[in-house]
Amino acid sequence: MATERDWLDEGLAVLAEQGAPAVTIEVLCERLGLTKGSFYHHFRGMAAYRAALLDHFENRFTTEFIAVAESGEAKLERLLNLVTGKGDAAGLEVAVRAWAQQDPLARAVQERVDRRRIEYLSTLWRRRGGEEPETMARLLYLILVGAGHLVPSLTADELREVYELAVRPYGRS
């Protein structure tokens, strides 16, 4: 039997691959090889599922990233490793942003995620003694947002090179 997390992880995969309109009970059931009854065991309906999916996105790609970065030294480098190491992250970021243009709940989550990520980047930059932490945080974040829209997309190594160039003059956090 699939767990709630299995359903949510599959939803993120569908979202990244095909966009928000493709995230349906039928598609999820088919991909997981499960019945609608299994879906309704975990979620009251599609609206509840979509809300949980957005929370799951925020937790996996913001809250967990910050926790991992904070768990050791060289926090900014740890964060950059996470950002450049997730193969599905660029497509997912673009898909959530597209969804946020059409759905008020997705927009509210995207605004909260953007704000939290920029605040965290600003904190990291300030800790390293970097100048203009808010501006640098926005620059580093804009690299992530913009990179997701390139066709063809940047490889993880290419994205890392851009980040390394942006932070090069400063020491480790």
UniProtKB/TrEMBL annotation:
PROSITE patterns: HTH_TETR_2 (PS50977). InterPro entries: Homeodomain-like_sf, HTH_TetR. Residues 24-43 bind DNA. Keywords: DNA-binding. The keyword Lipid biosynthesis does not apply. Residues 1-61 form the HTH tetR-type domain. GO terms for molecular function: DNA binding. This is AcrR family transcriptional regulator. It comes from Streptosporangium saharense.
